[in-house]
Design brief:
TIM Barrel, 9 strands, 10% strand, binds 4-hydroxy-3-methoxy-5-nitrobenzoic acid, binds manganese (II) ion
């Protein structure tokens, strides 16, 4: 009746893992979120983290076997967060993105019916990132790009990054705005209670990033641009009414110089320029709620393998009380459309 396409599935190259270990060991970054997140994943002795790190690096038989076991027809693969965005040297980050995209494409060529992929890019060099996105799509057949929220504390509403949006719109491919840990300027109160990671910090950071992009006017400039978000939009669908009310009031009152009038309501962009995946949200109430506010054409399945590899969770979405036609959209055709699969 449908193929299950999973839209936010992570991998890592051996070189990336090595470079992360090196950054941690020689204190090559002072980003507290990165050190906490990758310090945990790479150095914690638990079975869970060791399994995740092993699975991340397998683009071969093990991954295919586990997809078969959970009924996943196709994974849309992306380099794990924070990708190359942590590296201080922009040229190094750009080269690392290209090498990772080349490796990804090798795997896709080996399993063309099972894998598709998004390009890693290095916003540290916006022009280089736009070029790598173009190479990824035109030469390698990748389906868009992934950006893991802030890049060294900077957000994509800064116009220096808009070359990337311009390229995505021109190529007619989406940007997956994947979580990163909260930026250094706001992570402290999260870390004091161990809430900086996927438990909640990711969602605050990335929901903020989505809203910064919306209110900056990116979509008035690039009206066809599409952004894919995970974790059911990092909570934002619950906020549409209040965001429209308060954002509109602040704009009309001229409260901030930086808050410019938009052509449409904030929630209009969140409905028409964003897609929402269910990564990490195997729970029917918020999925049904998101479908009710953004529509059946904008919510799609993701597992978040290997970070959230819980085979029983697929049953939760299989059993959604929606029509067969809507289930086909949810699992298959929405992803086929936005990623041109
Ligand atoms: C975690 C979760 C890590 C997700 C991720 O990338 C990630 C985690 C480093 O649990 O630490 O992509 N996730 O999307 O929920
Ligand atoms: Mn993820």
């Amino acid at each position: 009746m449908y193929q299950r396409i999973a839209a936010e599935e992570a991998f890592a190259t051996r070189d990336l893992i090595r470079a992360y270990r090196d950054l941690i060991d020689r204190k090559g970054t002072d980003d507290p979120g990165f050190l906490a997140l990758m310090g945990y994943h790479l150095n914690n002795p638990s079975q869970r983290t060791r399994d995740i790190t092993d699975r991340l690096q397998d683009l071969g038989e093990r991954r295919i076997r586990e997809m078969d076991a959970t009924g996943i027809a196709k994974q849309v693969l992306s380099l794990t967060s924070p990708g190359v965005q942590i590296f201080p040297d922009a040229a190094y980050a750009t080269a690392m993105a290209a090498a990772s995209n080349d490796e990804l494409v090798e795997a896709i060529r080996k399993y063309p019916t099972r894998y598709a992929g998004l390009a890693a890019i290095a916003p540290q060099d916006p022009a280089g990132a736009a070029k790598e996105l173009e190479r990824g799509v035109r030469k390698l057949g990748l389906k868009g790009a992934i950006i893991n929220s802030h890049t060294r504390g900077e957000y994509l509403d800064d116009q220096k990054f808009w070359l990337i949006f311009e390229a995505a719109e021109a190529l007619d491919v989406p940007i997956y705005l994947h979580p990163n840990t909260p930026s250094p300027a706001m992570i402290r109160p999260f870390m004091e209670r161990g809430l900086d990671g996927a438990v909640f910090g990711f969602a605050v950071e990335t929901g903020l990033h989505m809203l910064r992009i919306v209110v900056s006017g990116v979509f008035d400039r690039f009206p066809k641009l599409q952004i894919v978000t995970g974790h059911l939009g990092e909570g934002l669908p619950y906020w549409f009414f209040r965001i429209d009310f308060m954002h509109g009031a602040s704009v009309r009152a001229g409260r901030y110089e930086s808050l410019k009038p938009l052509q449409r309501k904030a929630s209009d962009y969140l409905k028409d320029n964003f897609y929402y995946t269910t990564s990490g949200m195997a729970w029917q109430p918020p999925i049904l709620y998101a479908q009710s506010v953004v529509g059946m054409d904008r919510v799609m399945y993701a597992m978040d393998y290997p970070y959230q590899f819980v085979p029983e969770e697929v049953k939760v979405t299989d059993e959604l009380p929606i029509s067969d036609g809507d289930k086909l959209k949810f699992y298959q055709t929405n992803a086929e459309r936005v990623f041109s699969l």
